[in-house]
Amino acid sequence: MIKALKSLWPNGISGQIVLLLLATVALSQLIALALVNLTDTRHNPDENLRMQARSIAAIIRLIADAPGMEERQLIVAAANRSNPDIDLSIIGAAGTPMIVPGGETAPDFLTRDLGEDIIATVDPHTGSEPRTVTVALPDEMHLRVNLPFSAPTPPLLNPRTNTLIFAAIGAIALLVWATRVLSTRLRNFAQAVAEYTPDGDHDALPETGPAELRTVAIALNRMRDRIDSLVKNRTMMLTAVGHDLRTPVTRMRLRAEFIPDEVTREAILRDLAQMTDMINAVLSLLRDPSALPPLERVDLASFLQALSDDYTDTGKAVDYRGPAHVTARIREEAFRRAVTNLIENALHHGTRCRITLAANADGPLVIDIEDNGPGIPADQREQMLQPFMRGDSSRSESHEGFGLGLAIALTTARNHNGTLTLEDSQMGGLRARLTLPR
User: Fold this and answer.
1) Which residue in 52, 79, 120, 157 has the fewest CB atoms around it within 10 Å?
2) Can you list the domains of the chain with their CATH numbers?
3) Count of beta carbons in the 10 Å neighbourhood of residue 155
4) pLDDT tens-digit series, residues 412-426
């Protein structure tokens, strides 16, 4: 049964919207019909009131037609037994005039059935239900009877208006619900696409919902698989090339040692050292995240303090500011290379470097590495995080390096589920801010 119902559900978004509209109209009509019925039976007592008035009028006519007092008393007793709510009683003998001070004329729905020869007035002292009615028979005998229902009040809205109003309410409610369902799927879909990165570990997009969304999800899943495959193949190729280059570089270094010209030998060795450094930097940048060692809990404050002391011992102006002990889960070697790159970058473009660690109990760990150099213009900072970007001459007169330091630090931060941003420093230069989750 469930499979049969599922087979009737349209695959496309347009079909689902049409079906939801039809369901909206049908449901709103059912709600309106039910409310009209409730209005007729509960909020409009005209039919019950008419039947009750007819019953009371028939009893009064029987009493008026009875030949004697004894028969009339029997009719009154029988009427009270069958319907105690009316509380019928004889209050005045025949031929005795009785006037109800300030009495109001009984409602039309009662006087119509009584006839013109019987006069009915409503006691003004009974303002709430049931209303007390005094009836004067043709022979001037007076009766008192309770009318359990008040006169009908006109309904606030007629059935047609009720139908239109509740149909509109039902349609709007169901359309809002349907729109939220479809928009939620699209929003989740867009968020999954926006958060995708080739170096991240993401679940496949759900291939469910309307046919259009399923088609796009399948296409994007395949495209993401192709992108992952291309990135992995590129990484494997460049890594292999980098490893293979080490062997000829080593042979060239050994052969250079036998060059008799000292100037030429030193120049060649210097170039070979630069090539080795470039190979190591590229291999560090292209390291596969899945091959990284597991995270270890390290005293981050002591780690940063030790790095600062190492530079201070060599005469570099590097100081650490922050707590004495803060633990964090990091990959120590990779994180050491990233922070070292940032410190070297600060000292290369400035004369002083300051490392600041901020550790809030309910927030991430924040590491600021600042310098007093010329800084980087705000519109170039995002670009400077890309590989092989070394900036322009305004940053430094020297063009040493390969432009991989910031890129390696950014990759390391992402591999730790953190971020790296470049900002203005209070020291006048650049501030590289690393954030790490606890």
Assistant:
1) 157
2) 9-44+155-194 (no CATH), 46-147 (3.30.450), 211-285 (no CATH), 292-436 (3.30.565.10)
3) 14
4) 888 888 889 898 888
